[in-house]
Amino acid sequence: MTAETSQTLDRGLRVLKLLADTDHGLTVTELSNKLGVNRTVVYRLLATLEQHALVRRDLGGRARVGLGVLRLGRQVHPLVREAALPALRSLAEDIGATAHLTLVDGTEALAVAVVEPTWTDYHVAYRAGFRHPLDRGAAGRAILAARQQTLDHPGYTLTHGELEAGASGAAAPLIGVTGVEGSVGVVMLADAVPERVGPRVVDAAREVAEALR
């Protein structure tokens, strides 16, 4: 901690990060041990965060992330989109196919940024805001494969005709970005994805991940 920082705010943010990293919530004692502070301090932190709906406690007393974080999260997509656009533009122009950044939203894949190539006569119409199940389409499948570490190819996933007849897709997951689960990919009108596309998508996903760190 430096003289310019707030110890209380730092602890509150650490509480949120700890809760975000668990599916089962944490007790006051567990938080106290992880933070290295006494239980009274943790009670005060939780009470303050609860007032802002950033934390909730269940009947068993375990603290979890509250719904208030969703209001903050709505502002994240524009920032993520802006950071990803340079890599997506380069990918779309290089491959001649529609490039997209897709993030997890519950059980669905949500396209938050889409860039179409400028020089092709035909390309797949794919819009920001498009949703589909995580287990359909290259974007969602790449995310699921990264969770399970079961990617079929070196770092990317290929699909054909799962979201649109005659369209093929390639996507690579974002790796090493705390708090963001997603993928970068392309979708094209083709029976199969050309061999060079998969590695190029992996490179683009790496560029986006670096921009978001």
UniProtKB/TrEMBL annotation:
A molecular function GO annotation: DNA-binding transcription factor activity
CDD domains registered for this protein in UniProt: HTH_ARSR (cd00090)
Presence of the UniProt keyword Transcription regulation in the record: yes
Listed InterPro entries: ArsR-like_HTH, GAF-like_dom_sf, HTH_MetabolicPath_Reg, Tscrpt_reg_IclR_C, Tscrpt_reg_IclR_N, WH-like_DNA-bd_sf, WH_DNA-bd_sf
Keyword DNA-binding attributed: yes
Domain called IclR-ED: residue spans: 68-213
This protein's UniProt keywords: DNA-binding, Transcription, Transcription regulation
GO biological process, one term: negative regulation of DNA-templated transcription
One Pfam family recorded for the sequence: HTH_IclR
Domain named HTH iclR-type: residues: 6-67
Protein name: Helix-turn-helix domain-containing protein
Organism encoding this protein: Streptomyces muensis
